[in-house]
Design brief:
This protein folds into 2 domains: 224 residues, Alpha-Beta Barrel (TIM Barrel), CATH 3.20.20; 95 residues, no CATH class. It has 13 helices and 11 strands. The strands form 2 sheets. An 8-stranded parallel sheet has the order 1-9-8-6-5-4-3-2. Strands 7-11-10 form a 3-stranded antiparallel sheet, with no helix packed on it. Helix 7 crosses helix 8. The longest helix has 18 residues. The protein is globular and about 50 Å long.
């Protein structure tokens, strides 16, 4: 099977719409990318299997060139005492929003097997994985259904591991990305490299097609990633304000100039790129590692804050290129970034 993601997605634009879990990625955003001559990835993370199937059906009614990103299980169990202490700190904020927080850690796999089944049944053209590398059975099941298999990596060592597992291509993600940093070792993340240097380092150790992601906000950023060895660049933060994005109003309002994004695990228990706000000022230093337990712990607060339009207590995911995000149609944004 050809490993070229761009060929499989039939994209004539070397800038793709990256998956953004939790709402920003919508079928409308993926279809807008397709209409622009590019392509996009649906985000399966945090969705129910039924909701994912509905999104896939909406997209494939219009195009058979799309991708889907799935969170592959790679749990980071939380220390129970640390969880209890962090929950205690959050209780006043929970009381403010009148929400309940899970008393015990919730450790789940985000409906992993049901989502693999759904994507295999749908014959999704491209399936990418973040957080963990799937086992041979899952990879074989999806490959037999016709899917091109793509793994998110954040270091040359992870790239070797993914290549040995037998994936077809890689997404090389720098720590300058918004949202979750897809490192396989969140308790011991790899050295921070800017995107072109990371792409070059990965290209030197594996012979697989590469997509580049993280910190892209300009044509020069795209050119640099392509020159380093990527066949295309996937952008997420640049699309957060697009008309077709499902970014909630609190998140949109929070994308003001707040300085450089920080890498935090205070919201989800895994490293992620976010803009500084009141929640991080109060709780970042106290948060333990622990995914998905912290995601479930803070989710009621974040949902309530989003409903109230409160940017200070939601996860304002953003990469270093966030100042370039604009209120424009997605097609214009993607074409504007293409060299």
């Amino acid at each position: 099977m050809s490993g070229s993601v761009v060929e499989r997605l039939r994209s004539s634009v070397p800038v793709l719409a990256a998956p953004m879990a939790g709402g920003p990625t919508t079928p409308a955003l993926v279809l807008a990318a397709s209409d622009a001559g590019s392509a996009g990835f649906l985000a399966a993370g945090y969705q129910t299997p039924d909701a994912l199937v509905a999104q896939v059906e909406e997209v494939r009614a219009r195009t058979d060139a799309y991708g889907v990103n799935v969170f592959a299980p790679n749990p980071l169990p939380v220390d129970p005492a640390a969880y209890a202490a962090y929950r205690e700190l959050l209780l006043p904020l929970a009381d403010h929003y009148q929400v309940d927080l899970p008393a015990e850690p919730v450790e789940d796999d985000d409906h992993w097997h049901a989502k693999v089944d759904a994507l295999a049944s749908a014959g999704a053209p491209v399936v990418s994985f973040t957080f963990g590398i799937p086992g041979p059975w899952e990879l074989d099941r999806l490959r037999r259904s016709g899917s091109l298999l793509v793994q998110t990596v954040t270091s040359p060592a992870e790239a070797r591991q993914a290549a040995e597992a037998g994936v077809d291509a890689l997404v090389v993600q720098s720590p300058d990305a918004g949202g979750h940093w897809g490192t396989l070792t969140p308790a011991a993340p790899p050295p921070r490299l800017v995107l072109p240097d990371l792409v070059s380092a990965v290209a030197a150790v594996v012979d697989l097609p590469l997509l580049a992601a993280g910190g892209v906000g300009s044509r020069d950023d795209v050119r640099a990633a392509l020159a380093a060895g990527a066949e295309a660049v996937a952008v997420g933060t640049a699309l957060l304000l697009a008309r077709e994005a499902g970014t909630n109003p609190a998140h949109r309002a929070g994308l003001t100039d707040r300085g450089r994004p920080v890498t935090t695990h205070a919201f989800s228990g895994r490293p992620a790129g976010a803009l500084p706000n009141g929640f991080l000022a109060a709780y970042d230093a106290a948060a333990p590692l622990g995914y998905p337990a912290l995601h479930h712990l803070t989710a009621p607060i974040r949902r309530a804050a989003a409903s109230a339009g409160d940017s200070e207590h939601v996860n304002v995911w953003a990469g270093t290129g966030y100042r370039s995000a604009e209120h424009r149609p997605a097609a214009e944004i993607l074409r504007g970034l293409a060299p």
